[in-house]
UniProtKB/TrEMBL annotation:
<dbReference type="InterPro" id="IPR003789">
    <property type="entry name" value="Asn/Gln_tRNA_amidoTrase-B-like"/>
</dbReference>
<dbReference type="InterPro" id="IPR042184">
    <property type="entry name" value="YqeY/Aim41_N"/>
</dbReference>
<protein>
    <recommendedName>
        <fullName>GatB/YqeY domain-containing protein</fullName>
    </recommendedName>
</protein>
<dbReference type="InterPro" id="IPR023168">
    <property type="entry name" value="GatB_Yqey_C_2"/>
</dbReference>
<dbReference type="InterPro" id="IPR019004">
    <property type="entry name" value="YqeY/Aim41"/>
</dbReference>
<dbReference type="GO" id="GO:0016884">
    <property type="term" value="F:carbon-nitrogen ligase activity, with glutamine as amido-N-donor"/>
</dbReference>
<dbReference type="Pfam" id="PF09424">
    <property type="entry name" value="YqeY"/>
</dbReference>
Length: 148
């Protein structure tokens, strides 16, 4: 079952439950997927769907950080609810230990020895963690391991 089919089913469920918040988030996700599908002119692959979901999640995490800095608790709660809904459609997230293992393997693979090699390490790590880990968290762990 494609992601769009799943979203359509979840839209129906949210409408029946009169869950306006969930309904609006799912509609935003569906719109993002359909817009991308129109832009590229073909059905989206699961990889492309994952990229779009990851982008939506990143936007919400960035908003959350901004609202926390601005001390806007009303908006923080709203965005946290949206994040919880988007997470349902993403694959299970990697733990910090799993990310460290992937990063360690990548550092060994590209023979990285200093911060100059961060681009090569990130290039090797990101395809493995796509959609399964926040890029900022991965970057932090890469910097941590390269500095030690």
């Amino acid at each position: 079952m494609t992601l769009l089919t799943t979203l359509n089913e979840d839209i129906k469920t949210a409408m029946k439950a009169k869950d306006k918040e969930t309904l609006s988030v799912i509609r935003m996700l569906k719109a993002a997927l359909q817009n991308e599908q129109i832009n590229i002119g073909k059905e989206l692959s699961s990889e492309e769907e994952l990229t779009i979901l990851s982008r939506e999640m990143k936007q919400r995490r960035d908003s959350l950080a901004e609202f926390l800095n601005a001390d806007r608790q009303d908006l923080v709660e709203k965005v946290q609810g949206e994040i919880a809904i988007v997470e349902k459609y993403l694959p299970a997230q990697l733990s910090e230990e799993e990310i460290k293992e992937i990063v360690s393997q990548a550092i060994a693979k590209v023979s990285a020895s200093s911060m100059k090699d961060i681009g090569a390490v990130m290039g090797a790590v990101m395809p493995q963690t796509k959609g399964k880990a926040d890029g900022n968290q991965v970057n932090k762990i890469v910097r941590e391991l390269l500095n030690s």
